Amino acid sequence: MTTTERALLTESVHATLREQIFAGELPPGAALSVPALAAKLNVSRTPVREAVQQLISEGIAVYTRNAGAKVDVVDDETIRAVFEVREVLDGLAAHQATLRATYKNIEDLSVLVVDQRALLDTPPDHRRDARMDLEFHTAIRDIAGNKPLREASTRLDGQAHLYRSDMWTIEENRRIAVDEHERILAAIRSGDAEGARSAASAHVAGLLVRTRRK
Ligand SMILES: [Zn+2]
């Protein structure tokens, strides 16, 4: 197997495990045993070991001395801390994106928000709606073009994904999120970097409250 083939295999194992974790098939606290997963996925242990390492570096799995790697557990306290950092980082991303965005970037963001608005007429789909929300934020971070910010955000997103919440199943929360995305987009479009920062921070602060609301 060439180096490229091995890297592709690791990437594919990593994507599969991530998906199973976020779908709850590998729930928080589940053991990530390299031999067991290699047998289940019918691949050798090396790509599984590398994929699990990657999950650990992404904050999705943790390594415990006695029990090996496990899917991380994100409790109320952790999710609050995660969103507090996201509030600052997504504010910064929106600020930098405003200063750097091209007409094409703005058009692409606009398409995402229009799609989200259109989907409000269809029943909620927790996974789709969470994915589309993430897509919007990832697009802004990409436009911001700040690599450390992008990496830190990916880690926070992984952890946020592990937290069980009914947020995206509540009709009202879906509408509020689209309204907030439109506000962020309007500020970016008009070139108001400070306005984009405060709109993005306010959106994330609201997401935290709605994520934890019982
Ligand atoms: Zn959002």
Automatic annotation (TrEMBL):
InterPro entries: GntR_C (IPR011711), TF_FadR/GntR_C (IPR008920), Tscrpt_reg_HTH_GntR (IPR000524), WH-like_DNA-bd_sf (IPR036388), WH_DNA-bd_sf (IPR036390). CDD domains: WHTH_GntR. SMART domains: FCD, HTH_GNTR. Pfam families: FCD, GntR. Keywords: DNA-binding, Transcription, Transcription regulation. The keyword Amino-acid biosynthesis does not apply. PROSITE patterns: HTH_GNTR. Residues 7-74 form the HTH gntR-type domain. This is GntR family transcriptional regulator.
